[in-house]
Please model this.
Amino acid sequence: MMTMPKASDRQDDTANDNNVGSDNNHQAVSQDHAVRKRITSKSVLGLISLFMLIPILVVLLSWTQPVADIWTHMREYVLPQVLKNTAILLLMVTTISGTIGTALAWVTSMYRFPGQRFFSWALMLPLAMPAYVLAFVTVGIVDFSGPLQTALRDLGISTAIPSVRNVWGAGLVLSLAFYPYVYLLARQAFLSQGRRAIEAGQMLGLSRSRIFFRLALPQALPWVIGGLLLASMETLADFGAVSVFNVDTFTTAIYKAWFGFFSLTTAAQLAALLIGVIFIVVLFEQYWQARRGNAVTQGSNRRFDASTPAKIAMMLLCTTMFLIAFLIPFLQLLYWTAMNFRQDFDARYIDFVANSLIIASMTTLFIAFLAIIIAWVKRQYPDKTTKLLTTLANLGYVVPGTVLAVGVFIPIAWVDNQLIAFGITSHQVLSGSVIVMLLALSTRFMTVSFQPVDRQLQRLTVNQEAAAKLLSDSPLQRWRQVVLPVLSPGVLTALLMGFVEVMKEMPITLMTRRQGWDTLAVRVFEMTSEGMWARAALPSLLIVLVGLLPVWILLRQSDKTG
Amino acid sequence: MSLNAVSARLPSTKLTLSVAVFSMMLGLVGCNKASTPEQDTDAETTAPVAEQGVATDSAATDDGQVVTIYSSRNEQLIQPLLDKYTEETGVKIELVTDKTGPLMARLQAEGKNTPADMLLTVDAGNLWQAAQQGLLQPVSSTVLETNVPAKYRDPKGQWTGLSLRARTIFYDPSKVDATQLSTYADLADPKWKGKLCLRTSKAVYNQSLVASMIENLGEEKTEQVIRGWVDNLATDVFSDDTSMLEAIAAGQCEVGLANSYYYGRILDEKPNFPVKIFWANQDTTGTHVNISGAGVIANSDNPDGALKLMEWLSSDKAQGVYASADKEYPVKEGIDESELLRSWGEFKQDAINVQKFGSLQTQAIKMMDKAGYK
Model:
């Protein structure tokens, strides 16, 4: 550019101005167009990221005022235990939900065995069960005073069931609650990945296990890792479930600093540490994913046959998981609900359900829309800044809900106060409106939508895109005919996962809902905050039931992809 | 094909929904708050005067006013009382519930434009903190002064207790004789090794209990007691009082500490619940008593309305409800308690002013952390 003669410069300028002319000029125009498009795309992405970042930034700003004595205490007496527990939980959740989720996905998507059709959707049902609900139900059943041990004692068996109210119990329950993330994404991968390669492997005489470990798993790994990432982030941000088990984690330390020491500053600083750690993990994951190819071929939809003992083993595995992660807790909820139904149920529940549905639908649509934009920009311009911005836009998931809620609320209240100060309005317009709730929840669940959309978009091969460009001039047509069909399974996954997540969410809904706008999760809070577990069963059950519908659709859809 | 049908139909139903929502939202924003500020001439409430001009927007309200409450009290426990108040006075009440921490953060963020008039919380420590953060305003009310004993009120009048929550010892009568029980500190004695159940130290009730022990026994002795408790634990600590009481009933442990109303609620459902209550520290300082209480928000548009509601909540009629519906003890003396509460007997209450729970809370938490009380 710098050595370009002036004449050519002028020529370019005129070309731009006139927008017509020789081939040469046309190229310059389209280059210019490309640059403009790039800038627009990136600024859109930048805006979305900034928007998602504001709550986190508000929280992080508190770094400026250290509270020395609380920090000393936390460092000395709280953090060592907290770090240890958090590490154990993460390790347990990634190992257990990773193994189980992948194994179940492989078995149900590749083999024929009795109950295979049933399990392929039933194993996804735990997705509808909030972790905090699974936690209190599990403790309710398994603890010393629960029905299980009571029955055993009545039979004269002095039980050897150890206490579950510790980090191990919490780790198990979180694994059960979060394995569906891995299962769901891994299934999507197995069902649609290169069956031809697998068939070729079969013809070459590779054993099933080799086919799995050498062919299928490596191809599905980006999906599995995506699921694990969601599971780990959920684990780090969880407060409800670990409180039931009384396990001190990073999140509970944040709450301790805030609710115990009333130092929101220290709480925010701890949150900042947490975000920092996750940021590194996510960057690492992206780096790792970037080094992988995305070779995907389609193939037939034939399932493997297995020996009878293997079939029985698969059945047993699926049955066990279904029982402990869903059916037993579900039945317990049903039982508790039946016990308290007359006392608890009233007309307000219509509102609770409707509010939950509405806010979940709105948020889900909104974040799916944003997810498509982000994923698309990231694909078009896969450079470092884009990746960084993408990561930033997805960080909300790791911030404990209540902290994030405050981060959303502070700037919103500020805007409201400004509006009032300038006489534009006379009272709060934004805070307490559904918009705030929508924004806060979107910040939190962005990544739940982004993961499936992004991964699905990676399947659109460069060749496909190039062919589409050759065949059609209209970008709109290209989108409709090439991109959207490829993207739609991912978008649907995003919509449904997002929906279930919002249904289950509690702290943000609590903080940002407008007066009287209670949801099912708020109802659960009202009961559990007073330790009335059995009476939290009705709203919990409804959350699960309402969440089941999307889960079911999700599975039908993912079955068809294959 | 049908996949497309599903994916096509799904967003469209959602779209309809959200369109409905958006139009609803527009409606809601329009008719939001409707409080008429009354000129408050109370000399002590200087803070809100400056802001009162701001809220004159309110569309014509019917005779009653609106009192907006930020509450960390369980909704279903307080709502019936509030409904009764509305019925009697015509004053509308808006209730926003959350945990105390988020509610305070919300009040801070909203600043002078907060719609809230009253903060309703459980535990004196929380109210003390709210006052520390400048979120409450001092009020003087002869009604409150008459109804609520001084030890359950903030000396500066920034908040007042409305009901009492006694935290005391519970035991398994098949294994423990009441004569073996005496004080909270005694539960640290090695004779209870492997027999004690406790709720988590994260519960604000335990923090307040320990704060009161620091005041009554001194720091050193209290720390010894907590270490003793931890040594005596029969199992991991519980996340709530109810399951702790259930554990005693199931025989997992023999003694434990809980708030009396949790016990009362269990008895409502299981009259033969095999656990007994014991009033702690009767020969020494008296049983530890905490409050649920309220204060008027510093930036309230309707401090008068909030105060009137607080006064009403301290009246005989409302106080009776506290005892019968929630099994708490009325803060006002001479209220006829429910039969259940009477059956637990009279007891001596700790004389300490509950504001101490707030000022000693940090120290209490630190001490419990050091002693390994999770």
Remarks:
- The first helix of chain B runs from residue 2 to 30.
- Chain B has a mean pLDDT of 85.
